[in-house]
Amino acid sequence: xxxxxxxxxxxxxxxxxxxxxxxGICSVLVVAQINAALTQDDADRGALAWRFAAAALGAMLSxxxxxxxxxxxxxxAHAELRRFISARVLAADYRRLxxxxxxxxxxxxxxxxxxxxxxFVSFPTILVNAIIxxxxxxxxxxxxxxxxxxxxxxxxxxxxxxxxxxxxxIRHLDTAAKEQxxxxxxxxxxxxGAKELRLNAAKRRHFADAVLGDSIETVRRERAVGxxxxxxxxxxxxxxxxGFIGLVLFAxxxxxxxxxxxxxxxxxxxxxxxxxxxxxxxxxxxxxLARVSGARIDEITRQLERIEPQTTLATPAAPRTFRSxxxxxxxxxxxxxxxxxxxxxxxxxxxxxxxxxxFLVGGNGSGKxxxxxxxxxxxxPDRGAIVLDGHPVGDADRDDYRQLFSAIFSDFxxxxxxxxxxxxxxxxxxxRLLEKLLLDGKVQVKGGAFTTRQLSQxxxxxxxxxxxxxxxxxxxxxxxxAADQDxxxxxxxxxxxxxxxxxxxxCVLVISHDDRYFHLADRIVRMEDGQVxxxxxxxxxxxxxxxENALENPAAIAPRAEAAGEVGARGVGGTAxxxxxxxx
Length: 584
Ligand SMILES: Nc1ncnc2c1ncn2[C@@H]1O[C@H](COP(=O)(O)OP(=O)(O)OP(=O)(O)O)[C@@H](O)[C@H]1O
Known about the structure:
Layout: H1 2-8, H2 10-39, H3 45-91, H4 94-100, H5 102-143, H6 145-192, H7 194-199, H8 201-252, H9 259-303, E1 325-336, E2 341-352, E3 357-362, H10 368-375, E4 383-388, E5 391-392, H11 398-402, E6 405-408, H12 426-436, E7 445-446, E8 449-450, H13 457-471, E9 475-479, H14 487-503, E10 507-511, E11 523-528, E12 531-534, H15 558-563, H16 574-583
Helix pairs in contact: 2-3, 2-5, 2-9, 3-5, 5-6, 5-9, 6-8, 6-9, 8-9, 12-13
Membrane topology: Multi-pass membrane protein
Transmembrane segments: 48-70, 119-141, 147-165, 229-253, 265-284
Organism: Roseateles aquatilis
């Protein structure tokens, strides 16, 4: 990731790097002028003063340019990373995203990207100080080769110690980065579970001490150990420098010519070099943290690798239609790592056609929502195929296929904006629907956005229904939509809205536990333990040669529902309407 960003900003990085090099060189020149002024009696002091002033000015200007450029690089890297991760998340296979979980994505978007961006801010510090140290070395070599050779040995030893320490530190920083993803999950629980934590003091204490506390502590401990190792190795480097100054002053500089100049030069250079070297050694861990974070982002985004190309349909595309959607032996498996068990859904054989209302019923955990996700193309089938108008839906066209659907799952999300592209009558249509759903006193659509989302759960679900209506897709999926509605609105939903959708030719899949309304369905599909036990197509009647519109042959459907013991399961069209009237 880091190398990708570096490649992306190569030009700017080069320019900023050159400015840093210039700043480093100017700083060394300043020291050289100081040394000359201190030790050369016969020097032209006027020329020396000019050179000193030029070097100081050059150091300041190049430092300014480099810092501004690196700041821009850092901001650009941060934005680039956020765009890159968001794009990966948007394009990711939904199931993979579900498996990865929100906290990891959150931590990649926030902390890890901030660390990587930080690297670009610390980069000039590293570069400038590295140049100063290198320049000082060159100056020392110019003063005396033999002493310089000794300096190289000392610095070599320091670097070796630093490298060994570095390997150890990285291990701890890695552990901290992984634990931090879990910590983000706990942070979410702090807010999402606020009610539960307030209602149960023992649970709150356990969460604070054992769960959240442990996680915070692990991150603290691992990061503290990792960073301490770095800091200790920096101090070891410092000690080597002081040792070396002593060695030069009291042992190495023998009777060389210009003894005073060499000794003063070395002492001056070393004292001058201590601060940059120290900064360098302290900044390197930041670069390593950035590397660890970059690797973590890589790992997270690799798991989000896109499998399917995204649709090229423009957002306000005309609503598509379909003649039939058939699940032909489709199946999906969840592997539960902790419990080491598998939940297997299917193989399911089911057909859907426009103008048909199907109720999907069954006990908790029987697989209704999973089947709805499979049907809507959110999950790739592990087996079998989804056949749209006689053509199997593959990876290449699954995103297109999904555009047939509008779904309200129980964990639905309400966006503030309707996100339906600019449409002059969007507000009007939205407000008319709000009126129809008795929400006009609470919320309005203005400028393509809801004026508020601070509503009760049932009201929020009605807002989601408004969004669904506005999307005007041919296939609607309602996952226990009515569960949070009051009896009055349940009536409106089952007896008015659903028939109205059917009359408009919509295909509707309703997941429901409201058995008093089951008789209003055209067909009831029952699930048990991941299998369709009633209302599905028989595998042998599923193939392509089944009548394209089974609605023309309601008898083909009704007996299956009845066979499943669904009291009141009806045929479709006129039959259902008559049944409804009778029930009313
Ligand atoms: N995101 C998931 N990750 C792993 N396993 C899952 C996931 N969602 C569901 N499952 C598994 O699939 C089974 C069926 O879940 P599903 O939500 O499809 O049932 P459901 O019939 O809709 O239940 P309910 O009526 O309670 O909403 C669950 O028992 C669970 O083991």
